[in-house]
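Complex record, two chains
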Amino acid sequence: MAVTNPAGPTMGDPDNTGRFGRFGGRYVPETLVPACAELEAAFKEAWSDQGFRDEFEETLREYGGRPSPMTECHNLSKELGFRILLKREDLNHTGSHKINNVLGQALLAKRMGKTRLVAETGAGQHGVASATAAALLGMECIVYMGEVDVKRQALNVFRMQLLGTEVRTAMSGSRTLKDAVNEAMRYWVASVETTHYCLGSVMGPHPYPWMVREFHTVIGNEAREQCAKLLGDSNPVPDVVVACVGGGSNAAGIFSGFADTDAEMVGVEPAGGAAVGRQVPGVVHGSLSYLMQDEFGQVQEAHSVSAGLDYPGVGPEHAHLADIGRARYESVTDTEVLDAFQLLSRSEGIIPALEPAHGLAWMVKAKDELAGKTVLLNLSGRGDKDVAQVQAILDGDPEALSTMRP
Amino acid sequence: MISLEEHLLELRASGRKLLLPYVTGGYPVDEWPRLIEGFASAGADAMEIGIPFSDPVMDGPTIQEASSIALANGSNPQMVLDAVSGADPGVPLVAMTYYNLCYRMGHKRFASSLVKAGMSGAILPDLPLEEAGEWATEADEAGIATVMLAAPTADDARLEKVCERARGFVYGVGLVGITGERAELSKSALSIAKRLKNLTDKPVIIGIGISNPEQAAEVCEVADGVVVASAIIRRMLDGGSTDEAIEFVAALRAGLDSV
């Protein structure tokens, strides 16, 4: 059924059924099919319109604070025995890479005549970014957040409210990101005529995995140029590009800049949410991809210290990149992540979010393999939102410890 | 065996409006299988049997709650199908579930499991026309009717294609939204029924938001029949017995017979 395009460029456009290889598609209730088709057409039209591109780039620059710098970690490089570069998405407005995608989608939604955004959020980063974009563009915004996450990210709930967004608590299922997506989709099914679903990662039905990646290619494009400048003409590309993967949007953004090079690409999943690592395909939230599920196909709950990676699925393009061997996917434990979180803070004066701390945790673990190499890590967000949680864990607070999986 | 579509067409030809109540496979725990024969004797013409899924995005709070109670008590597709195969309601049974359970089992095995359980059709609300091909072909071969959903957001050209692919009946989505009771019948229930009746001779059954005998009768001024789910399940979640649920189905029957 799927028309695959094996000759196409790696990380090129999906085929006309919205597939990357055998993954992707548009598995949504019939009610949403016309809206997905309309969005696909609108995105294609806008993305090929220089006027829209200019508006997007200008907003990223003047409002989002791009380009984000690249930082070489001299201290940590010495300590670990390989050269470490950070793409500083933590320095964007709202503190993570998420702003790229939401500004793109909000501008597109406005162009389509939609008046309201609905979004899901895990850690709160995408929710805050969506609330920010809605405030900027004068749109209404509703964000669904799982009850568990509302508790561990209370500050982000307040931020969204300050920004004029209505935060709704998802009480169903595991009460985390997966359930927030369910609730946002249910809301969208009932309000599709006026509302744009501002999905926060490279997942969901076509065109989302493709569109969200395109809005994040700015990360990879900038990084490619910055690496060339820093590393020199003789060897302008790092040996390894590393990013954390929940749904996989920051990884898709930075990988897109290096997919056509010899750089090895490594996605790092939490051990308790390693959808690619488990290699079982399934369909949830609109696309076919790797999915944590039981023998009957019931979706399993992911467990991670990081709310932003607490997701049992993964974007379909990552499943494809793993399938064709272009990227490899590793996993790290919560304990390793906490160590890496402290390591970067202490050695470089940069407190990372728990999500990109996964990438660093893998680098620490793989330091023998990486010896002498140049490694680029996408530092997808800053750690302010996580410091209270980490403090509680390090203090041995039982409730905070219960969010940990050893 | 007479097909789902032939069965419904025969009843329609006799002047009857069609009633398809819904049963959650696994709710109420232990008692649910008796609803199948109970609903049939209360006047159901066919029945939807829900196979609970962890992430039912088309379902509102009522069906979600029944599904999670069922799952928490160990309901799984095999148990539901085994229980169904022991029932003898004398009317066709249609599985209602989400695509991943079918995909995980494999299209061929899922279809043959439904046949083995004595079921006649399947509704997979997250498998739209463009993705349905492989499953629907396999289901056709096994003699399982793939019921397609037809939504008010689609244009007539799309509705026509949906009707063409539909087997058994066309499931008209009564409102722009998810399953659950509504105080009033949505205007879009009647308008989607009219549009579908103009496009197809297959049975046109309207579901989602049909909450009581009056609404069922109102929509059947145009449609061939109704699916009622949340209104039945909610009565039991509120503490009502299975007998009360069966009485409610009888009331729906009476409502339809008044049309």
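Note: The first helix of chain B runs from residue 4 to 13.
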